[in-house]
Specification:
By secondary structure, this protein is mainly α. It has helices at about 5-10, 15-30, 40-50, 55-70, 75-100, 110-130, 140, 145-150, 160-165.
Length: about 170
């Protein structure tokens, strides 16, 4: 590919980096929390979401987010793209939680606050994955699931059991 072709679509390297990050983050979001509701109850969809947010593929995406957030401190185009992606994640997860509340599966007074809590824990686990310390204790690996179950008034372990029962679709692309 010739540099002129790239500069035709992306006036600066910053624009190219922001677009590449946005494309990867959007694909990840679409795989983890599809905009169109697939079959299954909100509880089943949340269980699948948590099943996908563990393992090497998700750890790699976590590292991408860490780098994007760091670089966005100095690059306004990337900062705007990171903010849009974070809002999309928050909105998509909040929508799933609201759906669960409306159907009587979840109990939380504020689905958006609960979504933020879950995402903050997932972000923390992503940072922890970046330490490359190897295997993590089960309590650490389950921290986001435990937070969700507690905040949504679900029985402890129900999301893990559902994920194990439903082998579901293949894991999202890395």
């Amino acid at each position: 590919m010739r540099p002129g072709l790239i500069s035709h679509y992306f006036p600066s390297a910053e624009d190219l980096v922001a677009e590449a990050f946005g494309s990867a983050a959007s694909a990840e979001l679409d795989a983890l929390l599809p905009a169109e509701h697939p079959d299954g109850t909100p509880t089943q969809r949340l269980a699948e979401f948590f099943a996908y947010t563990t393992g090497p593929a998700y750890d790699d995406m976590s590292r991408l987010w860490i780098n994007a957030r760091h670089l966005s401190r100095y690059r306004s185009v990337l900062r705007d793209r990171v903010a849009r992606q974070e809002a999309a994640w928050r909105g998509r997860l909040t929508g799933l939680l609201r759906d669960g509340v409306e159907r009587g599966e979840f109990r939380t007074p504020d689905p958006e606050l609960t979504a933020i809590q879950i995402l903050v824990v997932l972000d923390g686990l992503g940072v922890h994955a970046n330490t490359d310390t190897g295997g993590h204790p089960e309590a650490v690996t389950r921290m986001a699931v435990t937070t969700a179950e507690r905040e949504l008034a679900l029985e402890h372990g129900v999301l893990t059991r559902l994920a194990e029962q439903d082998a579901g679709p293949a894991a999202p692309p890395a």
